């Protein structure tokens, strides 16, 4: 098995060396960049299996790097790091396409768990789908193109982050099936740590804001009180 290539964009050299050491323990080959400009250039010029991206960087900040990579349709997983703990920064990072988010200081075990979870999720996506797996799912006016990772409502394209698409596709493949937050964390995010259920809630809220006519009365992603969520097909499946 080839070593996974990881790019660490972190301006604090001490933290960067620590991250490199902990990634090497996971059998990763690591390259480091100390500022936003060199980090973005590295990310655009070479293929990586993961980018560990600090939010506050000299030159170009992490949010802008994330935005530019996703605009170029680079689907490399991004784990964003920040010394800030505000919900706004966290939501902005996820909205712009980061796959996960860690607030400093964090434990080595938590960092490694998040990295391994992202690798597992990518490996799961790359596994071949069953021969009869649908390439496109239609839920009334909502159309989901699994191969192209595109979503449209009545022909109008809907811009989703990578994680929002993964979540919607997971629901749409099993209309009517009720899924708990813990199950969604495990199946979509790849880890099942208790205490991170708010991650599921915030993603579902943002997904509803993009695909529902009225997010307060959702037609597609419905809450099953006390249990979790399910996807309802407006044509009747799972209603």
SSE map:
Blueprint: E1 4-9, H1 13-24, E2 28-33, H2 36-45, E3 50-54, H3 62-71, E4 78-82, H4 87-95, E5 100-103, H5 108-126, E6 136-139, E7 142-145, E8 150-153, E9 156-158, H6 162-172, H7 181-189, H8 197-211, E10 221-224, E11 228-231
Parallel strand pairs: 1-2, 1-3, 3-4, 4-5
Antiparallel strand pairs: 6-7, 7-8, 8-9, 10-11
Helix pairs in contact: 6-7, 6-8, 7-8
What does this structure look like?
This protein is of the alpha/beta class and about 240 residues long. Helices cover about 40% and strands about 20% of the residues. It is built from eight helices and eleven strands. The strands form three sheets. The protein has a five-stranded parallel β-sheet with strand order 2-1-3-4-5, with helices on both faces. A four-stranded antiparallel β-sheet has the order 6-7-8-9, with helices on one face. Helix 6 crosses helix 7 (about 180-190) and helix 6 (about 160-170) crosses helix 8. It is globular, with a radius of gyration of 18 Å.
